[in-house]
Amino acid sequence: MDSNEMKSLIQSYLNAYNSFDIDAMLLYLHRDIEFRNISNGVIDAETKGIEQFRELAEQSKKIFSHRLQTIKNYSITNDKVEVEINYEGTLATDLPNGLKAGEKLQLSGKSIFKFKDKKLRLIEDYS
């Protein structure tokens, strides 16, 4: 894949993510997708395979009434794309950590994407 194809695939995935369209998100994922969410250096969510990813996406969908990931910058090396991300979301439910429904979150972070067979094979989100 060339860099434009990789950027386009990532943007299409994020558009589906932002609109809570899980079926569309899955279209861009390799069946062996690996996903990790890493917060303050600790893995707090991890999936292997498209079914585990779907389960996590369905759970996450219930937590937010609004969410938006915006790409600030791309860095491409071979089959790996590192993306600087701005994230904002509005909680739909109270969380165990004390955050309440209606509260807005704003974070900056990065995501790493790797590819296989013209699909996303790895997604790592860092915040």
TrEMBL record:
<protein>
    <recommendedName>
        <fullName>SnoaL-like domain-containing protein</fullName>
    </recommendedName>
</protein>
<dbReference type="InterPro" id="IPR037401">
    <property type="entry name" value="SnoaL-like"/>
</dbReference>
<feature type="domain" description="SnoaL-like">
    <location>
        <begin position="11"/>
        <end position="120"/>
    </location>
</feature>
<dbReference type="Pfam" id="PF12680">
    <property type="entry name" value="SnoaL_2"/>
</dbReference>
<dbReference type="InterPro" id="IPR032710">
    <property type="entry name" value="NTF2-like_dom_sf"/>
</dbReference>
